[in-house]
Design brief:
Elements: H1 2-19, E1 27-33, H2 40-56, E2 61-66, H3 77-82, E3 88-92, H4 115-127, E4 139-145, E5 150-153, E6 168-171, H5 174-183, E7 186-189, H6 195-200, E8 206-209, H7 211-216, E9 225-228, E10 236-241, H8 243-248, H9 251-259, H10 263-286, E11 290-293, H11 304-320, H12 325-338
Parallel strand pairs: 1-2, 1-3, 6-7, 6-8, 9-11
Antiparallel strand pairs: 3-10, 4-10, 5-8, 5-9
Helix pairs in contact: 2-10, 4-10, 4-12, 5-11
InterPro entries: DctP_fam, TRAP_DctP_sf
Pfam family, one: DctP
Protein name: TRAP-type C4-dicarboxylate transport system, substrate-binding protein
């Protein structure tokens, strides 16, 4: 009699376990970004951060990741977090025009060598409080940059500034637009995800992108000519969180978020970009594309006066608005000399 009773008890226990609902997380965060789900930025930054936060919270925080601008278009992603359409975003500051002018000083020529270097610079500027006032309406978690941006064209190979005349080039931000205007191009503003269709349709003649962007957004399929101008520009990014959502978390879960913020994650993000720069360039080489590297980069005599003038104009415009642009620029240059 005991064995049938034991079997029945075990069966009842198993049935109860099967029917018991899975315990829901205490908090669910929606993380929005514009990269495609196949991109390393989605897998190794956004999703990796989400998984780590969930694990370290013991499952009390669940992070749902929404790639490909499914919650908000790229220019609206920062405000989407501010207005709680999303709880967290990974986005480009410069896509929200005129919101982060001091942060975008790092985009100027000659500051950034690669993503790890640029991310050290921008995270340090934030940590030191030089640009933190620009983020008073959200809670930044970490800031970073991509590697050096280059010029990629469909038909005409750019060797010197005069080659830009009449060409419509996609620009990511107003800062890069000023550089391209100085070089003689016609900058056309658009987020990276829109570039493929614009090049394919002949709306633009080329793009300003780093090598990783060429690969991720498939622009290497359309632009067989590439010009590397060492130090031309970079782009600033951030992962930031809605302040009210953060403040609603209990102290121990706030600590989980805090432990997944700052310089460590800034460098994790940078590593993804730097690895993909290598892959993106190798892809262009494997396709037999023409790559022209400007001797001396931004210090080349044909390029330097134009780029120096554009940088000076940007700083002067900010100073005229009462912003300490030259102070931030000077500190960015000091950090550029010490960051590895």
């Amino acid at each position: 009699m005991k064995k049938p009773m034991l079997k029945a008890a075990l069966a009842l226990t198993v049935a109860m376990m099967i029917q018991a609902p899975v315990q829901a997380a205490d908090f669910t965060l929606r993380l929005a970004h514009f990269f495609p789900p196949v991109a390393g930025q989605h897998k190794h930054i956004a999703q990796a951060w989400a998984d780590k936060v969930t694990a370290e919270s013991g499952g009390r925080i669940e992070v749902e990741v929404y790639p490909s601008s499914t919650l908000a278009k790229p220019p609206a992603q920062y405000d989407a977090v501010k207005n709680r359409i999303a709880d967290v975003t990974m986005t480009v500051q410069g896509y929200t025009a005129n919101r982060f002018p001091l942060t975008q000083v790092v985009e100027l020529p000659g500051i950034v060598k690669n993503a790890a270097h640029g991310s050290c610079v921008i995270q340090s500027l934030y940590n030191e409080g030089l640009i933190s006032d620009e983020y008073s309406d959200t809670k930044p978690l970490f800031l970073f940059t991509h590697g050096q941006g280059h010029i990629h064209t469909t038909e005409k190979l750019i060797k010197e500034p005069t080659d830009f005349e009449g060409l419509r080039i996609r620009r990511p931000t107003a800062v890069v637009a000023k550089l391209l205007e100085g070089l003689g191009a016609q900058p056309v503003g658009m987020p990276a995800p829109q570039a493929y269709q614009s090049v394919q349709r002949g709306v633009i003649d080329g793009v300003a992108l780093p090598w990783e962007g060429q690969m991720i957004f498939r622009i290497n399929d359309l632009t067989p000519k590439h010009t590397e101008v060492g130090g031309l520009y970079t782009l600033s990014f951030l992962v930031t969180m809605n302040k009210d959502v953060y403040n609603s978390l209990p102290e121990d879960l706030q600590k989980v978020i805090d432990n997944n913020s700052g310089s460590e994650w800034s460098q994790i993000a940078a590593g993804v970009f730097d690895a993909q720069d290598i892959q993106g360039r190798a892809q262009a080489v494997s396709k037999g594309h023409e790559i022209y590297t400007v001797e001396g980069g931004i210090n080349n005599p044909a390029w330097k006066p134009v780029l120096d003038k554009a940088s000076e104009e940007y700083l002067a415009e900010l100073e005229a608005k009462g912003l300490p642009a030259r102070k931030v620029y000077a500190r960015a240059q000091e950090l550029a000399a010490t960051c590895q």
